[in-house]
Design goal:
This protein is mainly alpha-helical and 111 residues long. The protein has helices at 20-38, 45-71, 77-83, 92-96; strands at 2-7, 105-110.
Length: 111
């Protein structure tokens, strides 16, 4: 029996933001459905992984850059929480058209 797995190496970003798991799950679901329609081989998990990780890194970087500019100026706790919200709307372009940042590779495991 042969099983296929996809693997992807990327730079870990040491930032924590509420909602990243929800965004990741949503992106994976959306790209899985999208690549299933447009891929010659059906659902292309390798392509999905590349797009999800690229999008997540773009959104997290944008959020970090925005929050690091604002956090030094804010004193109210509610404003600080708001400044750490994921910049999803302003990342619309990267969500719809993720850049090719990393290459996933296929791993075949023979059992």
């Amino acid at each position: 029996m042969i099983s296929d797995f996809s693997s992807l190496e990327f730079v870990y970003l040491f930032f924590w933001y509420e909602g990243t798991g929800d965004l990741c799950a949503s992106l994976f679901l959306a790209w899985t459905a999208s690549t299933d329609e447009h891929s010659q081989s059906g659902g292309n998990i390798k392509e999905c992984l590349e797009k999800v990780v690229a999008t997540m890194q773009c959104v997290i970087r944008r959020t970090y850059e925005n929050s690091s500019k604002q956090l030094g100026k804010l004193s109210d706790a509610n404003q600080i929480v708001f400044a750490r919200e994921l910049m999803i709307v302003s990342s619309k372009h990267e969500i719809e058209n993720p850049p090719k940042l990393h290459e996933a590779y296929l791993v075949k495991i023979i059992k």
